[in-house]
Amino acid sequence: TTTTTLVRGTELRARFAVALAEMYGAEVPAYTTLVEVSRAVNADVAAARGADAERLGSLERVTAERHGAIRVGSPRELEQVGRVFAAFGMHPVGFYDLRDASASSVPVVSTAFRPVDPAELAENPFRVFTSMLAVDDARFFDAPTRQRLERFVEERHLFSDELLALADRAAAEGGLPTAEADELLRLATDAFRLSTEPVDRAWYTHLEKISAVAADIGGVPATHINHLTPRVLDIDELYRRMSERGITMIDEVQGPPAWEGPDVLLRQTSFRALAEERTFREADGSVVTGALRVRFGEVEQRGIALTAAGRDLYDRLVAEVDARRAGLVPGHESDGHENDSQRTRVEVALDVWRRHLPRAEADLVLAGLACGEVRLVEGALLPACEADRSFSLAALVEAGAVVVDPIVYEDFLPRSAAGIFQSNLTDAGTKDVELDGADYDADRLSAILGKTVLDPIELATAQMQRSVDALSAQLKTPIT
Length: 480
Ligand code: OOG
Ligand code: NI
Description:
- The protein is α+β, with helices and mostly antiparallel strands.
- 44% of the residues lie in helices and 16% in strands.
- It is built from 18 helices and 14 strands.
- The chain has helices spanning 9-27, 29-49, 59-64, 75-86, 118-123, 143-155, 161-173, 178-190, 201-210, 212-218, 235-244, 308-325, 345-356, 361-366, 393-398, 414-423, 442-449, 456-475; strands at residues 6-8, 66-72, 91-97, 108-114, 127-133, 175-177, 199-200, 227-230, 266-272, 276-281, 287-292, 296-302, 372-376, 402-406.
- It is globular.
- Nickel (II) ion binds next to strand 2 and strand 8.
- 2-oxoadipic acid (OOG) is lined by residues 69, 71, 129, 131, 226, 268, 298, 412, 416-417, 420-421.
């Protein structure tokens, strides 16, 4: 018998991320600048902060880390892309509804495909934010537009049968032999290349009036990677350096404000990409060269994952910031600001955060707001146990017998995502709020995908609980 060596899913994923980056870098030169500046920022932060800089991931992981974004037009296309990503050990996590995310709204629902196992994440956390056009949402699409969209999307083939067959095999067998692995990577990368096929101008323009995102999905013959996002350790510094290079960033960093406390969840910012050459078919049948400006550059900084209670608090803080800026609730005189409507979202958010969140990472975890892995410090003295012989985690941490390592937030924020979508569009589009929208939730996406869309908070809290259970087993007593 001969044994063939399999190229395993983990390696396939790492190679996929690199192949997409090479293709995207060749297509979008500003991406290369962004990656260069990100690397420089990360190196400088690591030099300045030492080991502390790596609390939320090794410099190696962070430097290689990317997320991509793609958009598809139908349940069939979503199901197929789910099979492609499964080959790379990437599974659907999180349900994001961007149709009602605050002021901005985009006619898509989304999930992110990513590795789930902490060891896999540590090896290569490549993830792809994946949006599906909600063609059945009557607030955006009238019946004739919907029918034409459905027909248009049904007739195109984003993923070849050969690609899908190889992907299914890789997922089933945990990898592929070398030659098949190469072929899978070639076909999968190619599926996300910007198409050179002509775009029907009239149809594209019709959709663009409703939503530029709808036009980018249902007005073109293929999908493409929309952006590829590097991770930085200091997004404010990155923002400064990109601006210094003359690249106009969107107005603010999305998500939590910069503050003295730990990095929490996700902060993101972006810049509009340059116009890209595309060919169009005009009404008279002639084919002309034109340009579209739909792809953009984005960068992110990741922080600690929150528990359900932490996320509730976060959402309440976001609402408080909105209410204060809208003048619905007063600011606090002690902060020297009664007039929040004059201040930026980030400025108000900073005050709100300082009032409500513990500043030490361990306190966030011990308060049940954030997720961390606990571990016994070798040789440390244990504190006195409780009357029932159990240990309190707080007492163990206080005594220095246990340390808490933060669990990084691996997911996305719907409001930031909507903000990123929106700030890169020139036109708000149209939405008839009098009509009913189509119902979408994680269950409906799971049914479309034929696999369960996992819950980000459950994944992070389960990881934390496993570490508490292991500690409890080590100490042979319950931990409270
Ligand atoms: C996705 C926008 C959302 C993020 O990082 O929140 C996103 C898109 O533009 O297709 O990528
Ligand atoms: Ni993104």
